[in-house]
Amino acid sequence: MRKWIKSLSAITLAISLAAGFTASADAASSLKGKIVINGSSALLPLTLQAASEFKKLNPKVKISASAAGSITGPQSVRKGIADIGAVDWDASTDVPGFKKFDGQVANPVAVTVFAAVANKNVGVDNLTTKQLQDIFSGKITNWKDVGGSDEKIVVVNRKFGSGTRVNFQMKALNGSEFMSKGDNYKEVGSSGDMKTTIETTPNAIGYIDLPYVTDKMKALKINGVAPTTDNVLNGKYKVWGIGYFMTKGKPTGATKAFIDYIQSKEFQNGSLKKLKFIPLSAVK
Amino acid sequence: MVMRKALAVSVMAAIVSVSAVGAASAASAKPAAMAAQVQSATFKVNGSDATIRFVASKGETLVSVRDLSKALEAKLSTSNGTTVVSLNGHTVQFKPNGKQLVADGQSKSLLQPVKSVNGTSYIALRPFIAGLGGTLSIQAGAISVTTVKLLEGAENPRFAGNGKLLVSKTEDNGRTDYLVDAKTGKYETLLSSSDASDLVVAPNGAKAAYTDSNGAVYVIDLASKVSSKVSDDSNIKPELVWSSDSSAIFFLQGDKGSVIAKLDPASGTITKVLDDKVDYKSSLSVSPDGTKFIYVVTTLGTVTSDATNVDEDNVSIDYSANQSQIYAFDASVKDGKPAKLTATTDDKVFVESADGVKAYYVSVPSEDQDSPLLAVDGSSTPATVYADSDVIESVLDGGKLYVLAAKNDASNVIYQIDLSTGAKKQLYEVSSEVSSIAVSGSQIAVVKDGQVLVLQGSSWKNVTK
């Protein structure tokens, strides 16, 4: 009996092997390498989520992430201290305030939506482009001048070098200049700092990327249009940009595999949407 | 009993030998008188037992066309002396005593003619099934015939109750989830969505939870396929975890996964469990009583920069603090604080816990070293659970750890480790192309080269392709 079972399983095994259990030394998990990513804090939640998923498929790839604003991304790549520079604009081209980074390739990873946000105590829900320009340039300094209560406006700006700042200036303010000093003016260094400052500073106004908007702040409509994914997809809301992973030349090895993963249908239609980013294919 | 065993062996031998016959020998075979000794055996036909009459002849198994067509639920008809069998868009035609079989319009030679015994036609099994788009294998000693059209390109298998697998296919604008019969591969659509997160199956296998791109939480009943919104809360929820009794959903909250919270799907009530302002939590596990938690915290590198003159690239990164560490939190202790269980700089993946106290994880020290499976509960340094070879994945299920590890360039192995006794045993040796496993109770599935296979008896059967 035992012998029969043994020979039977041997035959079965032979069949299952022949049926497709062929060996391959090229399994996905054999990928090795180290990837250093620095730059945009807006793209950081996306980067870390993708890194966590990628590592389960490729445990031997080490991914180190940090964020200090978009401009530090392509700077780190140029300096040779990072493999990927996460940046909220295409840094291989000139944009207002920043020259292009020669020799770097812009690999698109996600669509980011930016929102004008205010502290919960602000009684205004909607601002026009002109009102936003006047508030952020310091011409309008009191909420009563835009339909709110008689309170001084606290303008919270991102520091020079922020991709969110570049996008907000280009797309919400149509390129108009920011104020840069004053009693009711603050500058913060990251999306996280912006979130905390807006949540805790009465009468504050600032701007932030959509994933950072919380129920402890107010996302303002711009020209009557709310900052939602749906309004980006239907073309009504214009304050959005594409986030890029900058690499020195075309990416190779583990860096290429990671960028391929973040650009894959699986990630773009899966975790990326869960984190309130918009897939690249949706705005093509 | 003895007779049946011997029969099964001879049938298998026939199949195996036929599979080795080439086209040249088929052409040279000559018809010969044969003893019409009709026997019968139990075949597995699309996962169900069916008694099929057959004639063993010259190393081939000729099966009753009537019996097998009935078991396959194929359409059988005769017209102008030609028998026609149709199934799933495939058609096989032949004439009594003919040596030709026409499958979907293509004529093929048979090694021996269709035989007629007492008014029943017997035809060679392998070309007949191939003509109907099916496959043959041997499952637990019985011939297994499968004509089910398998789902192609499905990923991420998870068991959803007894005998069912939940798998997903990503499309250009979203994802479709399917329930696949783990025995036959028959599948049905469960959910098509443009913005649903991955479905997390409840431990009772009856329902699954997911979020949409607004953060709202839904529960889908896997039997009725009806989804109900159980929370409108718009916070981003990177991870959902069911309570062990399938009554509550724990989740990480916010884009940085800073908060651990609990959702009661019946009332929609959300309560915060831990809000310690520590960002980038992940890999949440919850104890059966819902009071103890294991999770990972990722800390980032520290950047120093000055963008006054962009061209100077005045930026530096200190990655010494960039680590992932495992934490435990006991919510039943008044004013309790999370406890850091690890302090090492290795990467920690597949972090899971059965009791919210002890964490199991795959430690990845570096790209050139093997990754062991370790356990840690804060009482001492991490203990080795499995270090015989490089661990690819570990899965915790029902008090046991299932470890997929590399053996050599050609093979991987699957081990089972009993958490209460520490007993370790090798369950299976599989191809090195097996990249992932799914386990639920006695059920196990593997992903091999993008296809899902389920263990049936002693062999692996494709349930997707």
Brief account:
Chain A has helices at residues 2-18, 44-57, 72-79, 129-137, 163-171, 191-200, 229-233, 253-263, 265-268, 271-274, and strands spanning 33-39, 61-65, 84-87, 104-119, 126-127, 154-158, 185-188, 204-209, 217-219, 221-222, 240-248. By secondary structure, chain A is of the alpha/beta class.
Tally of separate domains of chain A:
2
Amount of beta strand of chain A: 15-25%
CATH class of the largest domain in chain A: Alpha Beta
Rg of Cα set of chain B: 28 Å
Low-confidence stretches of chain B: 1-35
What name goes with the CATH superfamily of the largest domain in chain A?
A: Periplasmic binding protein-like II
Shape of chain B: elongated
Structural class based on helices, strands and sheet pairing of chain B: mainly beta
The main β sheet of chain B shows up as:
7 strands, mixed
Outline the structure in words.
The complex is a heterodimer of chains A (284) and B (465). Chain A has helices at residues 2-18, 44-57, 72-79, 129-137, 163-171, 191-200, 229-233, 253-263, 265-268, 271-274, and strands at 33-39, 61-65, 84-87, 104-119, 126-127, 154-158, 185-188, 204-209, 217-219, 221-222, 240-248. The longest helix of chain A has 17 residues, at 2-18. In chain A, strands 1, 2, 3, 4, 6, 7, 8, 9 and 11 form a nine-stranded mixed β-sheet that branches. In chain A, strands 5-10 form a two-stranded parallel ribbon. Chain A is α/β, with parallel strands linked by helices and 284 residues long. Residues 1-28 of chain A have low confidence and may be disordered. Chain A has two domains: 31-110 and 243-283, Periplasmic binding protein-like II (D-Maltodextrin-Binding Protein, domain 2, 3-Layer(aba) Sandwich), CATH 3.40.190.10; 113-233, Periplasmic binding protein-like II (D-Maltodextrin-Binding Protein, domain 2). The relative contact order of chain A is 0.19. Chain B is mainly beta and 465 residues long. Chain B is built from four helices and 42 strands. Chain B has a seven-stranded mixed β-sheet. Chain B is elongated. The interface between A and B is large, with 71 and 76 residues.
